[in-house]
Amino acid sequence: MIHLKNLSKKYTEASREIKIFKDLNLEIQDGTKNIILGTSGSGKSTFLNLISALDDPDDGSISINGINITDLDQTEKTIFRRENIGFIFQFFNLIPTLNVRDNILLPLELNNKNTKENQEEVFSLLKKVGLLDRLDSMPETLSGGEQQRIAIVRALAHKPKIIIADEPTGNLDKETTNTIITILNDLLKSSNSILIMATHNEKLIELADNVFEVKNRSLEKRLINN
Description:
The protein is 31% helix and 28% strand.
């Protein structure tokens, strides 16, 4: 579970103070898919950076499964991210010098989990997204939709407790976006991971258990019908 208590965050830009969040309190349960909606610059990416310990709040705390990540030093935060978080980015962020096989196995290697059994589970995920035959392909030879599917598999490879997705369909066409939504939803059904996805695409609401909008320096929960 993720627990945010009295969280505040502000920036200074051109001598002007910009308050993003003020006294934010929120709980996010395990196994839930959560959408963060908001216009560009509203604070969606800031929220993801705070949750993933890439940025620090000015006040308040963030606890994940009982660990107060705001109290960790930078080395501890790096280790925490590596072990507990999977990232899906808008621009895919596949390593261009590595083929598909090495890209998706990288999280296992970094976490000393690159066993044959774990590799087989990752290859099984790759098969589910229809790309098992591209193991030896380089990222530059893949379409945008294929690269995003690879990025999803990589994010899930080490069975993270939290999956962070920042505008994961922002560079994809409508048809490919629909495919990615279906794939991500199917892969998460058997996982107890928390998905937190920032987007301005309201089509993604159909994926969610909870939808929050960045408003009034807080996250306001929206009623949804699934």
